[in-house]
Amino acid sequence: MMRAAAITLAVAAALGWGWEHAGAAERPASGADGVRVAAQLRPDGRVEVALQIRAPGGGWSERLLPQRRLLPPDAALDRWLWTTPLQLDGAQWRITARRLASGRVEVALQTRPGPVGAWGERVLPARRFLPAVLEPGRWLSSSTVALARQEAQIVSFYGHPGVIEMGALGHGTPAEVAVRVAAWASRYDRLNGARGALPAYHLIAGVAQSAETPDGSWLQRLPDHRIAEYVDAAREHGLLLFLDTQIGWSDPLAEVRRLEPFLREPFVHVALAPEFATRPLDHEPGRAIGSNTGEQVNEVQRYLADLVREEGLPPKILIVHQFTERMLTGRGDVEDHVEVELSIDMDGFGHAHHKLHGYELFALPAPSERPALKLFFEHDTPILTPEEVQGLDEPPDIIIYQ
């Protein structure tokens, strides 16, 4: 063994594992309304997992066995491993599992719409813990995970207050921008069926500077009272809010920590712009393309995950902008945190063909869980229409207008 969040899941039932046998005589049927994980302890100490499908009539399929499905007895504690995918009803599914210090094994499910793209967030069945002491050869089952609607798309306006050149957010007061971005979100809402669309502000809270600042960060930070205006406006108008830092010569984690009072709000999320992180190059921001490492992204994710757990918040979205390979090094080192939905945003402007190539290269593959695409009103040639965006084989979860 080892969230494009295209299919999300709803969960039912109580804690602990069921003690019923997990097998049945039926074959998987189209139109299934639920799935569950089956697991057994093998004599050699490995835990074997399988997937079962519940048909609308209530019966369970036979166990579907991924090619890679055995959790070793010496697996590192708290490290999620995953099976090879199973193709079911046009989507791919995989089981993830980890050993806990208590001796129990925890299982979850992930899905994605096809053989490429990012996996959705882990969905945790309410009954998902395999006991520490097991009878070998006896199959147990988790509670049912029911199919549900996709997560809503997010449509945001990017920029800095009062600075028209930096993006659509600067073209008006928070209230005026809220009306405009809501109108754009409604266009996607009409195109994406039952999925829905949410409008959002994408506020640059830390702007990289071409001259060194007194603290050596090469950043001009938006005062807290100005950020608070957008927090209040987002709450009033029902918008999400992304707080974006261009990093400069500072540290991503340090800059995100500065935003903690606002991140305690359930509708406030984070974005990083590695393009302007140029300290390793010994260049001022804007003179060279900067970068962040996978470990720097992990540090931010761990911090956000802790905050989510401590405050009882819904998962935080972390957007990382990227339009060249060097902007995010060590992608393979990026961790998966259930409390954080990682989004890689194809951020470059230019011809639509090149933009979509970058979207496939950077935004769709792992570790991106919610692929994002930035569109430039002034610099794209031409700018993609909402109809063209929705016509992609894998439309973005997040659309950012600058």
Summarize the structure in words:
With 402 residues, this protein is of the alpha/beta class. Helices cover 19% and strands 27% of the residues. The protein has 7 helices and 22 strands. Strands 12-13-15-16-18-20-21-22 form an 8-stranded parallel barrel, surrounded by 4 helices. Strands 1, 2, 3, 4, 10 and 11 form a 6-stranded antiparallel sheet that branches. Strands 5, 6, 7, 8 and 9 form a 5-stranded antiparallel sheet that branches. A hairpin with a 5-residue loop joins strand 7 (91-99) and strand 8. The longest helix is centred in the middle third of the chain and has 18 residues, at 174-191.
Summarize the structure.
The chain is of the alpha/beta class and 402 residues long. The chain has 7 helices and 22 strands.
Count of distinct strands: 22
* SSE pattern: EEEEEEEEEEEEHEEHEHHEEHEEEHEHE
Mean pLDDT: 86
Helix content: 10-25%
Shape: globular
Q: What is the overall number of helices?
A: 7
Q: Summarize the main sheet.
A: 8 strands, parallel, barrel
Q: Strand order within the widest sheet?
A: 12-13-15-16-18-20-21-22
